[in-house]
Backbone:
C-alpha cells in the first residue's frame, strides 16, 4: 500500500514522541484541538494520546459532518423520504443518526420509505436517470470536502436534463465553526476552552488551501498546522504546534504537503462559488445557530433545490436532554463525562450523533479508548520504543 | 465518510472518470475536480471523487523530515 504504511511506522512514531517529550516545557501545559473527525479517529485508533506527555492534551473538535447536523434537518429528511413520490438518496453514515421522537432514516426505511444509501453523489444522479418517475432527492451533507462532489452531481444532472433530481443541501463551513468555538464563552458551570492551537483538517484543506486559516494565526494568535490523517502526520503536526507555542509563533503551517497546496483546489472552489451561496444562518448540533456558516443553492439553481421544491420548513428539535454531544463537540467535555456513554448510548444504539459516525468523539473513544478509563488517576506509562 | 486513503489510478475513462485500485479493489470515480490525472497517479478520493493528487516528491520530503526528527535535529522546513 503506497502512501499509507510509510506513515504508520511505529518506530518512527516513538521517535517523534521522544522529540515531543524532549521539547515540551515541564512548567506548562499544552491544549490543541484537532478540528476534524478524521484526526479524532486516527488519534484514538493509533493510541496517539498515550504517546504524548501528560501535559499535552488533545481536545476533540466538531469536525464530523454527521455529528454537527441538527436533529431538525434529519427530521426534514425523514419527512421528505415519507412522501410517496420521493426517493431519498443518502450517504450511509446518516442512516442511524437519531431524529426527534427516537426515529432515524433506517427506521423510516424499515417502515417503507424509499431511502437508498450511496457511496458517491454521482450514484444519486444515476438513480434519477434510471427512474424518471421518481423524485430523487440527494441528502447532501458535509464540510468543504463533500461540497464540490455535490456541485459536480448537480452540473451532470443539468447536462442530462434530469428534472426529477434535487438537492437537500446541508453543506457547512470549517473556518466559521473554528471561529465560533474560539468566540463562544463557556456556559455558566462549564469549564472554559483553552485551545492553544489547531491541527488543521486534511481533506478540507486539499480544497480550501491554507489561506482561510490565516485569521486564526493573525487575529487570534493561534497556530494552525494542517495535517494528514496517518498517525505520523498527526504526531509531526503536534510537534510542530508545540514548537510554535514554545517559540511564541502563531503561523499557518502545512504538514500535509503531499496533498495540500497553498491555494487549494481552485477548480473545486470555482465550481462551488458558481453553485452555492452563504445561508444567513444555520443550526449546528453543539454550536447552536451560527450566522453565515452553511451553504445553499444559488437562485439560478432554485429548480434543483429540494427545500424549495418540497417547501421544507425546518423545525428546530431538541437533542436528548441527557446527551452531552453539545459540550463534547465544543471540546468542553469528554465522552466519558456523559452519563449515557457506554450504557444507553453505544455505536449499536446511539443516542447522540457523536456515537453514530466512526469519526465522532464518542464512537472513537468507545472503540479504541475505553481501556484508558481504567488508568484514570494512574501515572502515564513511560514511553517505550515500539518494537 | 471522511476516512479516505490514497488510491492508485489505473485507467482514465471518458466523461471525467477514472478507474482506481485500492489494494486490488477496483472502483470507478470522478476526476472532474482534478486536472491531468494519468494512470500511475495516486489521488485522494472522497465520496467517489478525486479531490487532489499526491505529490510523490513532497511525500518523500515529509518522510525525510520525520526521519530527521528521530535524529534530534529540529531544522524542519515546512511551508509556512
Residues:
Amino acid at each position: 500500500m503506497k502512501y499509507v504504511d510509510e506513515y504508520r511506522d511505529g518506530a518512527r512514531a516513538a521517535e517523534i514522541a521522544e522529540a515531543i517529550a524532549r521539547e515540551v516545557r515541564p512548567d506548562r501545559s499544552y491544549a490543541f484541538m484537532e478540528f476534524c473527525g478524521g484526526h479524532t479517529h486516527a488519534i484514538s485508533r493509533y493510541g496517539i494520546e498515550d504517546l504524548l506527555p501528560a501535559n499535552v492534551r488533545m481536545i476533540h473538535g466538531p469536525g464530523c459532518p454527521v455529528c454537527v447536523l441538527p436533529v431538525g434537518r434529519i427530521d426534514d429528511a425523514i419527512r421528505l423520504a415519507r412522501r410517496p413520490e420521493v426517493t431519498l438518496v443518502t450517504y450511509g453514515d446518516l442512516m442511524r443518526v437519531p431524529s426527534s421522537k427516537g426515529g432515524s432514516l433506517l427506521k423510516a426505511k424499515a417502515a417503507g420509505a424509499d431511502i437508498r444509501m450511496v457511496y458517491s453523489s454521482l450514484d444519486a444522479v444515476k438513480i434519477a436517470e434510471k427512474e424518471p418517475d421518481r423524485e430523487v432527492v440527494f441528502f447532501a451533507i458535509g464540510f468543504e470536502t463533500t461540497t464540490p462532489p455535490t456541485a459536480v452531481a448537480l452540473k451532470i444532472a443539468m447536462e442530462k436534463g434530469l428534472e426529477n433530481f434535487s438537492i437537500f443541501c446541508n453543506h457547512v463551513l470549517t473556518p466559521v465553526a473554528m471561529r465560533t468555538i474560539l468566540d463562544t464563552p463557556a456556559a455558566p458551570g462549564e469549564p472554559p476552552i483553552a485551545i492553544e492551537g489547531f491541527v488543521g483538517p486534511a481533506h478540507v484543506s486539499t480544497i480550501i488551501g491554507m489561506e482561510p486559516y490565516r485569521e486564526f494565526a493573525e487575529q487570534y494568535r493561534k497556530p494552525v498546522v494542517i495535517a494528514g490523517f496517518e498517525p505520523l502526520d498527526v504526531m509531526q503536526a503536534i510537534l510542530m504546534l508545540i514548537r510554535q507555542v514554545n517559540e511564541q509563533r502563531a503561523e499557518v503551517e502545512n504538514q500535509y504537503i503531499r496533498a495540500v497546496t497553498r491555494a487549494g483546489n481552485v477548480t473545486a472552489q470555482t465550481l462551488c462559488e458558481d453553485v452555492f451561496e452563504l445561508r444567513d444562518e444555520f443550526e449546528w448540533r453543539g454550536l447552536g445557530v451560527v450566522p453565515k456558516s452553511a451553504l445553499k443553492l444559488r437562485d439560478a439553481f432554485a429548480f434543483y433545490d429540494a427545500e424549495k421544491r418540497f417547501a421544507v420548513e425546518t423545525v428546530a428539535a431538541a437533542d436528548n436532554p441527557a446527551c452531552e454531544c453539545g459540550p463534547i463537540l465544543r471540546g468542553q467535555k469528554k465522552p466519558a463525562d456523559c452519563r449515557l456513554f457506554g450504557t444507553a448510548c453505544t455505536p449499536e444504539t446511539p443516542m447522540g450523533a457523536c456515537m453514530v459516525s466512526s469519526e465522532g468523539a464518542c464512537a472513537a473513544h468507545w472503540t479504541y479508548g475505553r481501556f484508558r478509563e481504567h488508568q484514570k488517576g494512574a501515572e502515564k506509562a513511560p514511553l517505550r520504543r515500539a518494537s | 465518510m471522511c476516512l479516505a486513503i490514497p488510491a492508485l489510478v489505473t485507467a482514465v475513462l471518458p466523461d471525467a472518470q477514472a478507474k482506481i485500485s485500492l489494494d486490488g479493489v477496483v472502483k470507478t470515480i470522478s476526476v472532474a475536480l482534478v486536472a491531468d490525472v494519468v494512470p500511475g497517479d495516486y489521488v485522494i478520493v472522497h465520496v467517489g471523487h478525486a479531490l487532489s493528487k499526491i505529490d510523490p516528491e513532497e511525500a518523500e520530503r515529509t518522510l525525510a523530515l520525520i526521519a530527521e526528527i528521530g535524529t534530534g535535529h529540529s531544522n524542519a522546513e515546512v511551508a509556512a
